[in-house]
Known about the structure:
This protein is mainly α and 70 residues long. It has a domain at 17-58. The chain has one helix and two strands; from the N terminus they run E-E-H. Strand 1 (3-6) and strand 2 (9-12) form a beta hairpin. The chain is rod-shaped. The N and C termini lie far apart (55 Å).
Amino acid sequence: MSKITIDGAEYDIDTFSQEAKSQLASIQFVDNELARLQATVAAMQTARNAYVVALKNSLPSFTGDTIKLS
């Protein structure tokens, strides 16, 4: 017996209609996809930061602290 809490009320998933189970599955899919995309964004930001450091180190006389690309 699986349970879920929605807005403070507890529900038994086994009693959900097929439509409600489908909606729940969609929510779970979206939540998982959002988590995956957030992890991808974090990885890309880390990579970008490393590239910025590498670029700064490769410039002969970089004296600023911001790189802005247009």
